[in-house]
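Feature request, filed as a ticket because there's no other form

It would be nice if the structure record came with a short human-readable summary line next to the tokens. Right now we just get the raw output. Example of a typical job, pasted below so the devs can see what we mean:
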Amino acid sequence: MLELILFYIFGAITIVSAILVITQKNVVHSAVFLASTLLSVAGLFLTLHAEFLAGVQVIVYVGGILVLFVFVIMLISLERSVTERQFNRQWLIALIAAAALITEFGYGIYRGRDSFLIPPADAQATADTLTGNTQIVGTALFTNFLLPFEIASILLLVAIVGAVVLSKRKTQVD
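Raw output as currently delivered:
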């Protein structure tokens, strides 16, 4: 029962903060509400017993992507962006996409449990027979997929070093 209450609380925080991300005129406030959205999605993952996804959500999105957004916000000229037109003319496309999404949600709610791919309660495994999903991912990552994991980490390191070199070269030219 507590998990269900927490799920609804995190869901409400996610929806409200996501709406505030796109309605705020100040980009710094939008970034703060984006952090709130991403953290509440991590809370949703925790209520669904997906600890690994919650950890990845916090580390990658809050710790990485959001920091990148804040750096971009600091680097752009805020004085120039205030004088430019803030909104574009894509309201029709946004309304069509929102109507399609509302229709999909309405269909899912109308069809109920039968429309989702949820197995019956007796087919689900008990918590005692399951191993933690973090342990399964870790075991697979460091046994079967060790070489691709190391190659990806080297590629990310090269990209970071390249970005630093390119930014230093650009600042020296200016």
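Something like this underneath would help us a lot:
The helical segments are 2-23, 27-47, 51-75, 78-83, 91-111, 133-143, 146-173.
The radius of gyration is 22 Å.
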